[in-house]
Amino acid sequence: MSIKTEYTDFLVIGGGVAGLRAAVELAKSGKVLVITKARETSTEYAQGGVAVALSDEDEVGIHYEDTIRAGDGLCNERAVKILVEEGPERILELISWGAEFDREGTKLAFTQEAAHTRRRILHAHGDATGREIEGVLLNKVRSISNISKYEFAFTIDLLINDGFCRGALLLKESNKEIVAIISKAVVLATGGAGQLYVRTTNPPVTTGDGMAIAYRAGAILEDMEFVQFHPTTLYAPRAPQFLLSEAMRGEGGILRNINGEKFMSNYHPSVELAPRDIVSRSIISEMVKTKARHVYLDLTHLSSQFIKKRFPRIYSTCLLYDIDITEDLIPVCPSAHYIMGGVKTDTDGRTNIKGLFAAGEVACTEVHGANRLASNSLLEGLVYGPRAGKAASEYGGRTRKSKISPPSYKIYKVRREIEIDKIRTSLRRLMWDRAGIIRCSKSLREAKVKVSKWETLLNHNFATRRELEIKNMVTVAGLITEAAVLREGSIGAHYRSDFPERGKNWKRHIRFNK
Ligand code: SIN
User: Fold this and answer.
1) What is the C-alpha to C-alpha distance for residues 67 and 386, in angstroms, rounded to an integer?
2) CA of 111 to the centre of ligand 1 (A)
3) What DSSP letter does each residue of 77-98 carry, written as one string?
4) How far apart are CA 479 and CA 448, in angstroms?
5) Ligand 1 centre from 374 Cα, in Å?
6) Is 387 a catalytic residue?
7) Which of 237, 398, 466, 508 has a CA 20 to 30 Å removed from the CA of 252?
């Protein structure tokens, strides 16, 4: 099949906070093309907020310590230092670009979330922080003539030539055209992989594409066993798996089992604000004990006026499903939320492949260690997006425009019907049941066997987004299960019922390279 070739200086894959912020930086040095496979991103779903040491009672040193503690011994200290030290400047810059965070009087208003020892979470329009940040960044990007955007363009693979990343091969969904984009450098900012699990807070776009294409291209992937499960998503018939922000517990929300009993004090002294992995496992334990599919989040003791003002989006969404959160107990259950692992980078977003950079959830700087501190991910995008952009633009400055011959892509002709949607459903159930909140050798090995079969079945050059996505999901599922098998110990978000202690050699990072 003949492939059209287009040229740009820099290619950014992904349009969430990390990608947009990288694009702003790159535009100082040349033409930037941002490609996204859809219009929706994970950023816009972020409710709770963005953690930053800007309040009078806070210090970057305390934010640093809280992040390190949450990471359970596996954070890269330098990466955390950069995050907390550069965070305040990036937030003030965003405010100067028009971001409107909620205020009390003239002062910024901060809320509390689990494992933070200070009220340090900024929020916007109550519970629509990600949407506000993304809106401001999109306006910024639109104001820069050097940046253009392709939407509904799916990245099939990265273009690697002589060991250097020279761009990417895209499927443009509008006309089913395959296009090679040749660039001096590529920044991957494709987000996470929550869709690998049947229960997830993430939007449908989070199919692990960036991790899978980077892995196929020869990048190192690290810490893939560390998947964070958010304790509270709405569990109601017909309702989407809607996130109920941790800030609701930060403002006094209480967890109760289906018999109406409070239970968190049986599990952790910080009760509702214990680390997320502990709250999630405690909920599962109560669900098992009471033979129920959910527990409840109770806000009914808080003033109804406060709830409506503080959580307007959550209030109105729950009402659509006949739950008035000011009066009713809210049925909740944990869901896959964030992956700490990803494409290994240094603190400037460089991967092991020259010309390939990564930032945000797709990347692993080790800033979150084995468990991410709540609301550190928007900050990660705001800090590490521009760092990756700067490093990529410096790299581009030393690189001449590539003259590579257009690649070929021989589309797989379906000889035998592959039941893509069936594999997708089975994979998501399998990951939830076998590689979810509580794992063990037996469950993980069962998952591995099935995933390997699907990997073989899907090892083809597909030409539709649906097929390419499921191929990527299977690749990432293989990496998660393999890493989870190899880590015979429990740490951070990775809990093995057959190895409940940390185990020997826990301080290592598990890495994969094709
Ligand atoms: C939440 O609002 O609970 C999500 C915040 C986060 O995961 O960082």
Assistant:
1) 21
2) 12
3) HHHHHHHHHHHHHHHHHHHHTT
4) 9
5) 5
6) no
7) 237
